[in-house]
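#structure-requests
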Amino acid sequence: MDLICIGDVMLDVHARFGQLARGGDVHGRVLVQPGGTSANTAVWGAWDGARSAVVAAVGDDLLGELLIRSLNERGVHTGWVRRHAARTGTMLVALEEGERSMVADRGANATLTASDLPVLEAGAVLVSGYLLLQEPGYDTALAALERARSPFLAVEAASWPLVEAFGADRYFDETSSATVVLANEDEARALTGLEGAEAARALGEHYRVAAVKRGPDGAALVVDGALYEAAAEPADEVDPTGAGDAFDGVLLGRLVRGEEPQAALEAACRAGASVVASAQTWPEART
């Protein structure tokens, strides 16, 4: 296996509308699609040629079945997706006049325990920050970090408010066994107090590989102390949800397969930009 993603599989509900009057109704565009950080990352890794798998929990309900089927159709191994007696997790993404708000109901994702984890041996293993930085989930994330056997044992920072509440020093301490960190610029700032390449260099003092995703300013990557930078692909923003996950899946999959860091970084930026410019979080299926 090239890439194992541990964390969350959810149903995403995207709603785009104009200003909503208090107590009123509004017409808009609603899109329902599979999602979740771990699912998104695995799908993009598989689309880009990596053998990908997800470790997560969904409900023993129709939504859980549909999400597993969707992952299978995209070439992602789902034998480690557990069916628990809980509702499947759901994420509401509301886009109102250019502002994005997100409401997460973790559902079955919060029921994943250490006993659900398989043998974690792969070219890359990614532990979701949403698992590590929240309860319940924290103990499961620590167990995954302890058990994983991978040259690219990765953690992602997930959310800057969660990172701030958790604490940067504690984050570095709890993820000391990891060799890769993936963060957007806000998350990197919460961890280091720095931005861009300087943040990547600072994170590179804790991890062998450190990526800082900078949105329209591209990305910075440190590998074994060497800095690489890539410009963002031009994109007219439609919905940035999942762009960072696409970046992660492509970057990890390519590094595992031996691609040079600069080329892997540029491919990851292209994947992220394609999500930003689309209402779809997942790529078009390969034919």
